[in-house]
Amino acid sequence: MKSSVITFPGSNCDRDMDVALKKFGFKNEMVWHDDNELPKSDLVVLPGGFSYGDYLRCGSMAAKSKIMQSVINFAKSGGLVMGICNGFQILVEAGLVPGVLLRNKYLEFICKNVFVKINNKDNPYFKNSDKDVFEFHIAHNEGNYFCTNDQLKEIEDNNQVAIYYCSNNGKTEETFNPNGSLNNIAGIFNKEKNVLGMMPHPERMIDKSLSGEDGSLFFKNLINNIK
Amino acid sequence: MKISAIITLKKDVLDPQGKVIHQALDGMGFNNVNEVRQGKYFEIDVKENDPKKAKEIVEKMCSKLLANLVIENYKIIEIQ
Q1: A24, A27, A130, A178 - which has most CB atoms within 10 Å?
Q2: Residues of A recognised as catalytic
Q3: CA-based nearest distance B11→chain A, Å
């Protein structure tokens, strides 16, 4: 299975993602934002970080970079595209998933572990997952998901919410919402469920002694699903 | 030709920065404020002398990059 991780100026989780993908069997290639063509890939990842210094709006400049046309075409043809954190912000700015990510409600940069509950398993990312609740890491200033009422209705009607912030046993209440996200939304799909954007970082949870292994479960499951 | 654009948050969108600025103003003794909303201001010198065309170009810039129309409105406010 081949994957590509796009590096934008200011990306800083690109190498963590590279390590994670390789650890679980992907043959990964790093792709520079200024390239025109994606290499042949089964999965494209937009990593976390601070592309273009978060100028204008987080992800807005990266969404217009050269490689993104190729990423958009790949996504439109059904290819799997996953955006983590700043990658999620880039996906919304590129119009590949609906909504926007606003400044966190209490204006704090949040860096901690959170629990998220899978809402939809009928997709290549979470199909066959034994677990319903994952412990992942978040580190962001703009993760407050927002969309219009019409968009929210469409998202819910199409079952596009991927994960919700929740308690360790899966309760999706406002208390467990770290950043003010609409309805506790932590990640969403496009209509076709081949594009996933989420704020939490599974690539930071792949080592038993350093973090926890819920990220390992996520990546193992992902590669098995697309083999 | 210089064109200015103002980007403002839509009415229903929460503006935590505006709220904090409001609180700070309140703390400084400006007690007569109802609400503060923070926005962005751009001055763009366009290589175009026809005001109508220059305005159209900046409008396109606003809708494609400078503003995110899910949460923001834009207004071309000035032509010099």
Answers
A1: A178
A2: 85, 201, 203
A3: 12
Contacts of A105 in chain B (CB under 8 A): 14, 16
Q: Tell me which H or E stretch contains A3.
A: strand A2-7
Does residue A60 sit at the B interface (CB-CB below 8 Å)? yes
- DSSP 8-class letter at A182: G
**Rounded distance, CA A82 to CA A137, Å?**
16
Q: Report the alpha-carbon distance of residue A86 to residue A141 in Å, rounded.
A: 10
Report chain B residues whose CB lies below 8 A from the CB of A102. Answer: 13-14, 71
Residue A109 has pLDDT above 80, yes or no: yes
CATH top class, domain A2-226: alpha beta
Cβ contact, residue pair A103, B65, below 8 Å? no
Contact (CB, 8 A) for A131 and A123: no
**Residues A37-75: pLDDT tens digits?**
999 999 999 999 999 999 999 999 999 999 999 999 999
Nearest-neighbour CA in chain A from B65: distance (Å): 7
Task: Look up the CATH architecture of domain B2-79.
Answer: 2-Layer Sandwich (3.30)
- The interface pTM score, or ipTM, of the predicted complex is 0.84
Q: In terms of CA atoms, which chain B residue is nearest residue A60?
A: B65
What residue ranges do the domains of chain B occupy? 2-79
What is the rounded average pLDDT of the residues A134-143? Answer: 97
**Predicted confidence (pLDDT) at residue B16 exceeds the cutoff of 90:** no
Mean pLDDT computed over every residue of chain A: 97
* Close Cβ partners of B60 (under 8 Å, ≥ 6 residues apart): none
**What's the pTM value of the predicted model, to 2 decimals?**
0.94
Tell if the CB–CB gap between B68 and A57 is shorter than 8 Å: yes
Per residue in A162-201, pLDDT (tens digit) is 999 999 999 999 999 999 999 999 999 999 999 999 999 9
Q: Residue A227 contacts by C-beta under 8 Å, 6 or more apart in sequence?
A: A1
Return the structure tokens found at A81.
Answer: 């595209």
Residue of A99, A102, A147 lying closest to B14 (CB–CB):
A102
